[in-house]
């Protein structure tokens, strides 16, 4: 029996997809085979979520599937043939049809053994969770729910069709998926699932790093990643996949304003998610304002515009940086006289640990670099509100952040979790002020592309020197000058360079130094 709302949602989705479901179902039925829309596709239809991908299951083998769909599909591929899956595109939908199957792991194997089945119920019982073990038989649209997945969907509970122990023993990655669905859907796991995850946590170690990484990325991009991470930590799975995060439970926050650094970290992750949405809203508003103006930027305005923010939604990089930002604290904790606790340099240590963990999970170099850089920079702002910064310091902040500036804004703001309202307001005001100064300087100086006022070729011409290490030193000097003083005109930059050159051992005697315009 359908709850009325779920029935309406499902029927509406099926009606919308009828030009695909109807012909495909009849194609298989006419050939004597069963076909059912299954798993996440049915779950998402009941939840009213977008369904760009459609999953089907059938008693037809992969060769028979390909033979049937080849003349019907817009295009097709067989990269998943050994797992019984044939993929295709039809009217913009990405479709996968998989032969009924059961799969399990040997105790020491990282790869599933695949065996094809011959009936829908046996296929459904091997699926991860009851909310994904529902199907709609086609072409007659018969709803199949042998494990009460619809009720679990309504109750927002994650259970397994078979016993949780059997399910996780067959595929230990399902324990990660339980945490992922906790994040993506806002559901809670049943007591049986949580107990099995706890008892079998070490079994996650037989799963390849790539598969663990992919589930972790999906978890972090959910609506409540902190809840998914907390489930991994509380069951002991994080001890094997994110031990640095699990280790934060042992550390007290230096201000004793939170239960521990771990709880502080979960709060930072939640606040980063909220701030990400707020910054994306600001970005979209700015883009709409530009579009409303209806004018192309001039060369001059293009040179002076502020750096474009780089952010996606949901943004794995900023969220994972929020999760990892304090993992350097356990190894840097020191007890001072009077009971104070310090974590000096935990930002630098944390960045190194982040790189190490992400390499172990086989993340790509670019993602590792960005996340670890954010961890390294997350304390850079502190002190701004008390001492104030020169324009030079603001330039350095922007230049050091580079394309990560918007993400650094989010991480820095999210890291304020103090319950002291006056302190929180003071920090928020100080960061507002910093962002306003960045905007004003960017309008004048194009902070997204700070370069010395002279390039390498000009340096060599003015100093009459050949390419070599000295050119690099001169370049760095001019960059430092640019940071400290802002943009210089050509003559001022030339004078500064010559003054620097006069103090270098390579310049030779004063009479040999260039004093006039360089010859060309």
Question: What's the short story on this structure?
Answer:
The chain is of the alpha+beta class. Helices cover 54% and strands 9% of the residues. It is elongated, with a radius of gyration of 29 Å.
What attributes does this structure have?
520 residues; alpha+beta; seven-stranded mixed β-sheet; 13 strands
How do the helices and strands line up, and which of them pair or pack?
Layout: H1 4-16, H2 18-30, E1 35-38, H3 40-47, E2 53-58, H4 62-69, E3 75-77, E4 85-90, E5 93-99, E6 101-104, E7 113-116, H5 120-125, E8 135-138, E9 142-144, H6 149-155, E10 157-158, H7 164-170, H8 173-185, E11 188-189, H9 191-199, H10 209-220, H11 225-235, H12 238-241, H13 243-246, H14 261-293, H15 299-304, H16 316-324, H17 329-332, E12 334-335, E13 341-342, H18 346-360, H19 365-377, H20 384-387, H21 391-401, H22 405-414, H23 421-445, H24 456-463, H25 469-485, H26 490-501
Parallel strand pairs: 2-5, 10-11
Antiparallel strand pairs: 1-2, 1-8, 3-4, 4-5, 6-7, 8-9, 12-13
Helix pairs in contact: 1-3, 8-10, 8-11, 11-14, 14-16, 14-22, 16-19, 16-22, 18-19, 21-23, 21-25, 25-26
Q: Give me the count of strands.
A: 13
Silhouette? elongated
Nearest-integer average pLDDT: 86
**Strand residues, percent:** 5-15%
Strand order of the largest sheet: 3-4-5-2-1-8-9
The largest β sheet comes out as:
7 strands, mixed
Helix content: 40-55%
Low-confidence stretches: 295-309, 509-520
The structural class is alpha+beta
Between the first and last Cα atoms, what is the distance in angstroms? Answer: 88 Å
* Rg computed from alpha carbons, rounded to a whole number of angstroms: 29 Å
């Amino acid at each position: 029996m359908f709850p009325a709302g779920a029935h309406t949602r499902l029927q509406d989705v099926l009606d919308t997809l009828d030009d695909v479901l109807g012909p495909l179902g009849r194609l298989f039925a006419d050939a004597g085979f069963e076909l059912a829309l299954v798993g996440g596709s049915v779950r998402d239809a009941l939840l009213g979520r977008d369904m760009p991908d459609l999953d089907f299951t059938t008693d037809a083998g992969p060769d028979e599937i390909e033979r049937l769909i080849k003349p019907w599909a817009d295009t097709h591929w067989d990269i998943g043939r050994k797992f019984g899956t044939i993929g295709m595109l039809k009217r913009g939908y990405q479709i996968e049809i998989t032969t009924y199957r059961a799969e399990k792991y040997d105790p020491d194997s990282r790869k599933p053994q695949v065996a094809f089945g011959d009936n829908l119920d046996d296929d459904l019982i091997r699926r991860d969770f009851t909310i994904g073990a529902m199907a709609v038989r086609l072409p007659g649209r018969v709803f199949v729910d042998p494990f009460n997945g619809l009720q679990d969907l309504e109750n927002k509970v994650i259970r397994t069709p078979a016993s949780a122990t059997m399910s996780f023993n067959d595929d230990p990655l399902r324990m990660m998926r339980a945490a992922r669905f906790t994040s993506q859907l806002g559901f809670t796991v049943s007591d049986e699932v949580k107990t099995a995850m706890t008892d079998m946590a070490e079994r996650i170690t037989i799963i390849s790093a790539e598969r663990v990484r992919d589930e972790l990325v999906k978890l972090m991009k959910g609506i409540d990643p902190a809840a998914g991470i907390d489930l991994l930590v509380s069951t002991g799975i994080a001890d094997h996949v994110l031990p640095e995060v699990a280790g934060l439970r042992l550390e007290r926050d230096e201000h004793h304003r939170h239960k521990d650094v771990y709880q502080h970290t979960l709060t930072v992750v939640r606040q980063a998610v909220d701030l990400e949405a707020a910054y994306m809203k600001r970005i979209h508003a700015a883009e709409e304002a530009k579009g409303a103006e209806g004018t192309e930027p001039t060369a001059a305005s293009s040179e002076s515009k502020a750096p474009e923010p780089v952010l996606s939604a949901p943004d794995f990089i900023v969220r994972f940086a929020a999760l990892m930002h304090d993992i350097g604290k356990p190894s840097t904790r020191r007890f001072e006289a009077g009971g104070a606790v310090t974590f000096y340099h935990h930002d630098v240590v944390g960045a190194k640990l982040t790189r190490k963990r992400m390499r172990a999970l086989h993340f790509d170099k670019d993602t590792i670099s960005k996340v670890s850089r954010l961890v390294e920079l997350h304390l850079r702002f502190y002190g701004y509100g008390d001492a104030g910064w020169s324009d030079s310091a603001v330039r350095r902040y922007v230049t050091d952040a580079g394309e990560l500036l918007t993400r650094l804004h989010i991480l820095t703001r999210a890291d304020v979790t103090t319950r002291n309202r006056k302190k929180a307001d003071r920090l928020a005001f100080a960061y507002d002020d910093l962002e306003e100064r960045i905007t004003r300087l960017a309008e004048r100086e194009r902070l997204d592309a700070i370069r010395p006022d002279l390039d390498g070729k000009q340096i060599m011409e003015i100093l009459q020197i050949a390419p070599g290490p000295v050119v690099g030193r001169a370049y760095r000097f001019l960059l430092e000058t640019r940071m400290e003083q802002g943009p210089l005109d050509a003559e001022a930059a030339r004078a500064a360079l010559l003054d620097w050159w006069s103090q270098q051992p390579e310049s030779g005697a004063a009479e040999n130094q260039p004093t006039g315009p360089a010859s060309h």
